[in-house]
């Protein structure tokens, strides 16, 4: 799930990435072009039973990202704005801040 909070007086959007807790998942990381494709662990929120990662991104931009589950399984976000082909023969999730 992706939540976007647009600031009217700033040129940025607060984006919260969420993934539901699952018994088979111990750790989830967000990997994205806005963080130079570095693996960024998501925080576990026990109250909402989700893994979360929050970031502020520039308005009127598009960003590619994927989730890395248990350090070995790649997943896309079903709530992404779109999917785009990547250089590895699969697809990346696309987030738009327009």
UniProtKB/TrEMBL annotation:
InterPro entries: Ig-like_fold, Ig_E-set
Protein name: 1,4-alpha-glucan branching protein
């Amino acid at each position: 799930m992706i939540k976007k909070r647009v600031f009217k007086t700033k040129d940025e959007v607060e984006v919260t990435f969420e993934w539901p807790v699952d018994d088979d998942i111990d750790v989830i990381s967000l990997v994205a072009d806005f963080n130079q494709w570095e693996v960024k662990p998501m925080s576990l929120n026990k109250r909402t039973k989700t893994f979360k990662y929050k970031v502020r991104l520039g308005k009127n931009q598009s960003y590619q990202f994927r989730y890395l589950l248990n350090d070995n399984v790649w997943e896309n976000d079903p709530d992404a704005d779109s999917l785009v082909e990547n250089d590895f023969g699969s697809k990346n999730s696309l987030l738009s801040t327009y």
